[in-house]
Amino acid sequence: MKIITENAVYVQKNDIAYLHHTDLPIPASIFMKVFGNGIVIINNDNRYDFFKFEDPSEIEFFNGLDWIIDYDSVKDLSDDEIIEMGQSIAQSKNQIAKQFNSMSLKERKKNLDMVTQCELLDFKMYSLRDILLFKQGQLKMTLPNKEKKIQKLMRNIFPKRKN
Questions:
Q1: Which residues are within 8 A (CB) of 101 and not within 5 positions of it... i.e. 6 or more apart?
Q2: What mean pLDDT value characterizes the chain?
Q3: Cα(91)–Cα(24) distance, integer angstroms
Q4: What's the predicted TM-score (pTM) here?
Q5: CA-CA distances (angstroms) from residue 117 to 11, 96, 109, 134, 155?
Q6: Helices 13-20 and 113-135, interaxial angle, to 10°?
Q7: Does residue 125 or residue 147 have the better pLDDT?
Q8: CB of 15 closer than 8 Å to CB of 61
Q9: Those residues with Cβ within 8 angstroms of residue 50's Cβ, 6 or more apart along the chain or in another chain
């Protein structure tokens, strides 16, 4: 999942880990922020934590990855609407798979990117599932956007006292 703000994009570690397993070229600045200090361990304890990227080229890169769910585009959807979205993704995946399976072996070798497309759609469906579980209270994660809004609201309500 990603959350795009005016000056930054927050991307879940889970998505970063999956990005590393695709054939997509990862911009050097993103690679260095994530993997520059050595081995990064992403497990069930931190997979829903977020990395923050502020460089405009990084924001543009993640904005262009439509297989990473943009939280703002789904946060106000009902459970049924999210399920419908998942069904639509599944239909798209099935169409790609059907087309790929109907090809000759030679054509399949030329169109291996279709396999990657299916894998990315699978990942997108799993992300939708996680968002649905989060909205239902069955999955816990901290949204960086929301924390800042709450902090700002609290500062406005309870400003620092001058002594």
A1: none
A2: 87
A3: 24
A4: 0.81
A5: 20, 8, 14, 26, 45
A6: 170
A7: 125
A8: no
A9: 3, 10, 11, 12, 13, 144
Closest among 115, 101, 103, 146 to 1, alpha carbons compared:
146
Residue in the structure block whose two tokens are 């006292």: 161
C-alpha dist (Å) from residue 88 to 82, 85, 122, 125? 10, 5, 12, 10
- Asked whether the predicted pLDDT for residue 122 surpasses 90, the reply is yes
Q: How far apart are CA 4 and CA 7, in angstroms?
A: 8
| Range 69-74, long-range pairs (CB < 8 A, 24+ positions) | 69/1, 69/2, 69/124, 69/127, 69/128, 69/131, 70/1, 70/2, 70/3, 70/4, 71/1, 71/2, 71/3, 71/131, 71/143, 71/145, 72/3, 72/4, 74/128, 74/131
Q: Per-residue b/e over 61-98, b at no fewer than 16 CB within 10 Å?
A: bbeebebbbbbeebeebeeeebeebbeebeeebeebee
